[in-house]
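It is worth pausing here to work through a concrete case rather than discussing structure prediction in the abstract. The textbook approach is simple: state the sequence, then state the predicted structure, then interpret. We follow exactly that order.
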Amino acid sequence: MTKRQRFHIVLAVLALSAAVATVGCSFSTANIKSAKLAADREGTQETAVFAKDQVFFCIIQLANAPDDTKVKSVWTAVSVEGTAPNFKIDEAEKTSGDAVIVFDLSNTQPWPTGKYKIELFLNDKLDRTLEFQVQ
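Step two, the predicted structure:
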């Protein structure tokens, strides 16, 4: 390799480094360590089958999460009597670092029987879906 070729390689590496530094690089190791459905806010009554009069709780444990980590929940009635298929009931978003995050969904009337789900998004990317039923 000639001196001139080495010089061009060094220039290319420096230009690439400058481009990356200018654009910025965002990387997060944030993850949902665990997520479960429960009949209580503390998560001691874990379940995937709820009664018509219960509040739905989803308890999430975030790990390796910077303080600006976004977690979003989307609650959907998948196949529920008297409701259009895949009807979005509600959504909520919370910002947190390493912590336990609780999403809940309640109703002023009894829940219709059927299949439901909650989708959990971590920084706007679908991380997981938890399915449950009302009987």
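Step three, interpretation. Residues 28 and 65 are 7 Å apart (CA to CA). The chain has one helix and eight strands.
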